[in-house]
Amino acid sequence: MVRQYIIHTNLDGVDDEQIDVTNGKLRFYEPNNLGYERENNIWSMAGIGVQGSSNTVLEQMTFKVETFGVGLYENYALLKEFVEKITPRKFVTLEYTTSIGTYYADLAFNNITKTEGYGFNGTFSEEITFDLLQKWYSYEVLEFDIVDNGTFDEKYSKIYATNKYAYNDIPSYTYFGESDVERFSEYEVEPNVYSFVATFKPLPDYTGNEYGIVLLDDNGTEYSAILFEFNETVPSMFEINTDVNDEYYRGNLAGTSVNLFSSMVFSRYRTRILQEGSIRLIGITDLNMYVKRRKDFV
Fold first, then answer.
1. Which pLDDT value is given to residue 258?
2. Which of 115, 116, 119 is CA-nearest to residue 68?
3. For 82-116, what is each residue's pLDDT tens digit?
4. Segment 12-38 mean pLDDT
5. pLDDT at position 200, please?
């Protein structure tokens, strides 16, 4: 397939607008710096190179821009409207699709030329430059829920937490007699996940006062938690974004979006950076999570 470019004005938000810059009337071509560059700290010792630390280099990304409007007026309008859509944003996201998959890069607008060197039918040929914030990552959608206690059926059930640990060999079964069903609601965090966006609801009939997620390392030890404490009215919906460039913690109270940062349990919040391990749900259900997993070269 031919590579595809789409610009997202707010990838993580409900107001995201997707701009097709491959097949639309304003198109990107001849990209520069889609690849991968690493800076190595090397010094000489007795004529031998000694390698120190290494860092990924985030330089600028440029594209040629071509308009395909009908007449000079429409071509002016295409360029002007595109620039006006992206410049108010802190950053936009490039969706890049090839034969091997779809990947994303967060780009901060730097500049766009305006040469007035329009061609046939008034088309513009310009160049746009972005500063790189993150290149590249996959954007994976996850959905999971609290496991409910099942009702006992001798044909389909295994029995937990009884004096007689009884079971049968029929493969389909439900959980019965398990008081801590939350421990079955864990998602394994694989390497290179650097941020996530999540929405979730409070668990019905929950008797605790903390709602959110607990982050566990690969030994099952808690290293951080994103929890919110409520003793009275609880939001009907929670929204969190741990991306350092677009961080927020919000809740819906009676139809109004409110900042939940002051309700966080700060004694357990140590970092928003995920490490390899797992996530446990506390007092919540209907969790939808969009995970950003870093890729160096795509």
1. 95
2. 119
3. 999 999 999 999 999 999 999 999 999 999 999 88
4. 93
5. 93
Residue with tokens 């421990």: 183
CA angle 150, 155, 158 (to 5 degrees): 50
Question: Across the chain, what does the average pLDDT equal?
Answer: 85
Q: Give the list of residues 6+ apart from residue 169 with CB closer than 8 angstroms, or none.
A: none
- Paired tokens of 157: 């059930």
Angstrom distances, CA of residue 71 to CA of 81, 127, 133: 16, 20, 36
Q: What is the pLDDT of residue 171?
A: 45
Cis peptide before 43 (omega within 30 of 0): no
Banded pLDDT at 181 (limits 50, 70, 90): very low
Distance separating alpha carbons of residues 188 and 275, to the nearest angstrom? 10
| Contact criterion met (CB below 8 Å) for 209 and 263 | no
Better-predicted residue by pLDDT, 284 or 57 = 284
How far apart CA 201 and CA 236 sit, in angstroms, is 6
Closest CA to 65 of 80, 50, 45: 80
Q: How far apart, in whole angstroms, are the C-alpha atoms of residue 72 and residue 81?
A: 14
Record the pTM.
0.79
Residue 181 DSSP symbol: G
For residue 24, with 0-12 CB atoms within 10 Å meaning exposed, 13-18 middle and 19 or more buried, which class applies? middle
Alpha-carbon distance 56 to 15, whole Å? 31
Task: With a cut of 50, say whether residue 184 has pLDDT above it.
Answer: no
Answer yes or no: are the C-beta atoms of 229 and 263 closer than 8 Å.
yes
Distances, alpha carbon 227 to alpha carbons 66, 106, 145, 188, in Å = 48, 28, 17, 19
Give 184's DSSP letter: G
**Is residue 54 over pLDDT 90?**
no
